[in-house]
Automatic annotation (TrEMBL):
Name of protein: UDP-glucose 6-dehydrogenase
Organism: Brachionus calyciflorus
Residue positions of the active site: C280
Keywords, in A-Z order: NAD, Oxidoreductase
Record's keyword annotation contains NAD: yes
Length: 472
């Protein structure tokens, strides 16, 4: 049949965000014979993708976009038109956590996935492969299929695949170019298997068939939630050990090295820190907990809840350490916050640990000078004025300043500097000079273990670091 003999020539991606943008840029770069249209409801975001100042900072992304844009990579708000032309449609819309609802687990809000599926069902006049790229709860594909069927025209067929994205922000382009694996889940029918093969062929333009894992749809959906839950769990595990280090005199960096040398454990993701952030880990664990509750698996839900609990505890523990060192009061003391993004090499601030550190310090009456090379003022204001933080707007306006690179001005007259993000350039600052412009005693709180603590102490700083008891 015509449907089964189709060759993939045109891809449409709904959602021009942190996943849709970089993923499609790489597909366009590696598949010059495929036309790739990235569409979004937000005209502002699309305008930015079509400008010299693309909306997302990722090392290597801008170069690829500039090379393919206008050739086989297009950004537009013409959603209906691009859906109709496509053989494959990626759904890469946001799936935030609901801020309301009953129960302990926080359900994912599938409004945007549903509206994307609704649009496809209304607009599509020819058969399509629909790919879930967004992270969704298990069985979301079933809802998408039901939605699509409700409007299905005669002779139009939809195959829905799950193809979760495993890229990490900050290394998105290299992750997309050299993925550990590609996971594709589909229906266990001839048509389902055919659709899986079609999507595999796209990836095989640059990845080896041997790393493409194919499963049924539900295994694929669950694997994404489980992968993020296990990554976050590793961070909470090492952070829980960091608390023991600070109380006992053990050194978390030595402990991490000793643990990681065991090949069964491995050394990655064992860096203690002020806690994980970002738009995914907490959301996806909440999603998993919600799923467990719905399946009556209370003990399993309780197990994963601890990962979030330890993460919150780590941030509070760190702030308490700061307050205690500053003679138990931060009122009107200036504190320099190094980093507002949730990790290095990204401008993304969603759910960053730094936001929570800033919130707790503002509650204590501190004045903050935030230093981040990739975050702009509006974005910082947007995050700090989130109603959930409950910070009065005049407090934010009067007590917070943002600096992009002037570290001396950011630190002038401050009592403490607090490292919240592991940006590489924070390592090479002239800390002797910084010490001179700070109030004395001058404190450093290293929440990312990136600084040379011995050297800082030799300049006169009082240094505290996650997972260490430093001898002053
Ligand atoms: P994002 O908020 O950056 O982008 C989503 C975009 O979708 C927005 O620009 C929004 O305007 C658009 N959109 C929403 N509904 C739409 C509709 N009906 N039609 C057209 N456009 C619509 O989100 P993101 O960070 O790219 O994440 C997308 C999904 O991928 C989420 O489910 C997330 O969990 C998952 N994911 C994210 C990452 C990451 O590192 N950010 C990694 C892997 C997976």
């Amino acid at each position: 049949p015509e449907y089964l003999s189709k060759n993939i020539q045109n891809i449409c991606c709904i959602g021009a965000g942190y996943v849709g943008g970089p993923t499609c840029a790489v597909i366009a770069y590696k598949c010059p014979d495929i036309q790739v249209n990235v569409v979004d409801l937000s005209q502002e975001r699309i305008n930015a993708w079509n400008s010299d100042n693309i909306p997302i900072y990722e090392p290597g992304l801008s170069e690829i976009v500039m090379e393919r844009r206008g050739k086989n990579l297009h950004f537009s708000t013409k959603i209906d038109e691009c859906i109709e032309k496509a053989d494959i449609i990626f759904i890469s819309v946001n799936t935030p956590t609901k801020t309301y609802g009953v129960g302990l687990g926080r359900a994912p809000d599938l409004t945007y996935v549903e509206s994307a599926a609704r649009t496809i069902s209304k607009v599509a006049k020819t058969s399509k492969i629909i790919v879930e790229k967004s992270t969704v709860p298990v069985k979301a594909a079933e809802s998408i299929i039901n939605m699509l069927k409700s409007n299905q025209k005669p002779d139009v067929e939809f195959q829905v695949l799950s193809n979760p994205e495993f890229l990490a922000e900050g290394t998105a382009i290299s992750d997309l170019l050299n993925p550990d694996r590609i996971l594709i889940g589909g229906e266990d029918t001839d048509k389902g298997q055919w659709a899986i093969e079609q999507l595999s062929k796209v990836y095989q333009h640059w990845v080896d068939r041997s790393i493409i894992i194919t499963t049924n749809t539900w295994s694929s959906e669950l694997s994404k939630l489980a992968a993020n839950a296990m990554l976050a769990q590793r961070i909470s595990s090492i952070n829980s050990i960091s608390a023991i280090c600070e109380s006992s005199g053990a050194d978390i960096q030595h402990v991490s090295k000793a643990i990681g040398a065991d090949s069964r454990i491995g050394s990655k993701f064992l860096q203690a820190s002020v806690g994980f952030g970002g738009s995914c880990f907490q959301k996806d664990i909440n999603n998993l907990i919600y799923l467990c509750e719905n399946l009556n698996l209370k003990e399993v839900a309780d197990y994963w809840s601890q990962v979030i609990l330890i993460n919150d505890y780590q941030k509070k523990r760190f702030v308490n350490k700061i307050i205690k060192s500053l003679f138990n009061t931060c009122t009107n003391k200036k504190i320099a916050i190094f980093g507002f993004a949730f990790k290095k090499n990204t401008g993304d601030t969603r759910e960053s640990a730094s936001i929570h550190i800033c919130k707790y310090l503002l509650d204590e009456g501190a004045n903050l000078n935030i230093l981040d090379p990739k975050v702009d003022y509006d974005q910082m204001m947007f995050e700090l004025s989130n109603p959930q933080l409950n910070l009065p707007i005049d407090v934010i306006k009067n007590k917070v300043q943002l600096f992009s690179d002037d570290v001396i001005e950011a630190c002038r007259n401050s009592h403490a500097l607090v490292v919240c993000t592991e940006w590489d350039n924070f390592k090479s600052y002239d800390y002797e000079k910084i010490y001179e412009v700070m109030q004395k005693p001058a404190h450093i709180f290293d929440g990312r273990l990136i600084l040379d603590h011995e050297r800082l102490m030799s300049y006169g700083f009082h240094v505290e670091a996650i997972g260490k008891r430093l001898n002053h």
